[in-house]
Write a structure and sequence with these properties.
about 260 residues; Leucine-rich repeat, LRR (right-handed beta-alpha superhelix); alpha/beta; 5 helices; LRR_dom_sf; repeat
Length: about 260
């Protein structure tokens, strides 16, 4: 800790009082902006913690004993001075959210054990000095959000298109080649590189047009009957409906009903 900051004894006393119980019953401890340069030793014995916030400190290294915090589901270490991660971080298999943004991490400092975090849904590695990821991250089958912004990537990591549950990928402000990235991602239709609000009007219109075309094609495939008799049955069921025009197809299920006089 910095000179003039709390001693470990004082910090321990403070931490015991600072533990909160969240609405879903989790034990949360926030030690953000405490001037820490190391992880307090007493903290490594708090194996019943579920959420730990050590953000906005000056921590340079995590101890191997960090792996003992097996009850953690959320670990926030953003805005520190981390230069490496211990292999033991792979023992925190209960983690669903891991924030390592705004540190001093490089590709060499990312352990392969990160791929053992099988319940991880959100991983933020933005604002570091990373140009490649461990291939073991392909094992993160439930990962939904991956933050890689403000790093040194020249291309999208090879395994990213294989992350079947990934719905948000942030690669903003990297020196990657857009053409190469699009080639790798062309088979993953639901992968977004930027937020919709950051798109210009023309680009947004183009994306929406392509999305509507995909939806129309999917509907056509779904409506092709396997047998002729199924087609006749469909006509009977929807005899009171006219064929939707192009606007109706775009706005989804907007139909005109023919009135029988």
């Amino acid at each position: 800790m910095k000179k003039g900051s709390r001693s470990e004894k004082e910090l321990k006393k403070f931490a015991k009082k600072a533990i909160n119980i969240t609405q879903d019953g989790k034990r949360r401890l926030a030690l953000s902006k405490m001037g820490l340069i190391t992880v307090p030793r007493f903290l490594l014995k708090m194996s019943d913690l579920n959420e730990l916030d050590l953000s906005r400190n000056q921590i340079q290294k995590l101890p191997e004993a960090m792996g003992a915090l097996i009850s953690l589901t959320s670990l926030d270490l953003h805005s520190n001075k981390l230069e490496s991660l211990p292999e033991s971080i792979g023992s925190l298999i209960g983690l669903t959210h891991l924030n390592l943004a705004n540190n001093c991490l490089t590709s060499a400092s990312l352990p392969s054990s990160l791929g053992l975090l099988c319940n991880l849904q959100s991983l933020n590695l933005g604002l570091n000095q990373i140009d490649a990821l461990p291939s073991t991250l392909e094992q993160l089958e439930v990962l939904q959000e991956l933050g890689l912004f403000d790093n040194c990537f020249t291309e999208v990591p090879e395994f990213v298109p294989n992350l079947q549950n990934l719905i948000k990928l942030n690669l903003e402000r990297n020196p990657y080649t857009e053409a190469q990235s699009e080639e790798k991602l062309d088979e993953k239709e639901e992968l977004y590189l930027v937020d919709e609000n950051s798109l210009c009007k023309g680009c947004l219109q183009k994306c929406r047009t392509e999305e509507r075309e995909i939806l129309r094609n999917e509907r056509k495939e779904e409506k092709i009957p396997e047998k002729p008799e199924e087609c006749e049955e469909e006509k009977k069921r929807f005899a009171g409906l006219m064929t939707p025009n192009s606007v109706a197809a775009v706005t989804q299920d907007v139909w005109r009903i023919r009135r029988e006089l």
